[in-house]
């Protein structure tokens, strides 16, 4: 009983923090199902008197929301695949192979991640123009990789450094090639770290706004972040009901991934803290 009383303040504080963090999400969901007439009334009521899904219907039927949604899916998946392929191979190289300048490369990668991504916008934009890739999702995939790859590479390098080399050595002694040992031994062991890093990369690409605002400016190529802002927010008016409905639908994929990959996320970032 004494232990319970001792933990009571910590439990209250924990629940207060949780409620404080979750409340904006609850408000967002409830606002998205309120009729327009209940949005700006006083006193403010948390729960809607009449539940409606008209905002979702308008969003899906009268706006290019689904086009933006598809662009974000393609963009986030493509960025995640590119970054994870390069980061997995690069992290393995930095963790296992001995060659001159290996530590210098690792430090340079970390310093690249610490650099503010905003300083690369103009050089990257000019590069995309020279390559004829302006206003394309390809330009955003390349741009997102520039600031997602350094962190992913550093994290996977640390994770793979924590995998015992004896496991790989045993596979090589049994006749496996270096590639075979990597595929059959290293990848299964590194799976939690790979999944957690991939989730981080996906979230980064899904939520990114500044590069998308600069690199693309047509409805055919806009992702959700800039598309929704351009569609529902102006200097004179904000479509709050549609904005809340769009925010809810934008959050669904991330909540889905977190729900099913939570155990990998926890174990991956915990193991990724191992010093290489």
TrEMBL record:
Keywords, sorted A to Z: Cell membrane, Membrane, Transmembrane, Transmembrane helix, Transport
One GO BP annotation of this record: transmembrane transport
Start and end residues of each ABC transmembrane type-1 domain: 69-261
InterPro entries cross-referenced by the UniProt entry: BP-dep_ABC_trans_perm, MetI-like, MetI-like_sf
Subcellular location: Cell membrane
Pfam families referenced in this protein's UniProt entry, alphabetically: BPD_transp_1
Gene3D superfamilies recorded: MetI-like (1.10.3720.10)
TM annotation in the entry: 12-30, 68-92, 104-125, 137-156, 185-206, 240-261
Gene Ontology cellular component annotations, sorted alphabetically: plasma membrane
UniProt similarity note: Belongs to the binding-protein-dependent transport system permease family.
Protein name, UniProt field: ABC transmembrane type-1 domain-containing protein
Organism the protein comes from: Caballeronia mineralivorans PML1(12)
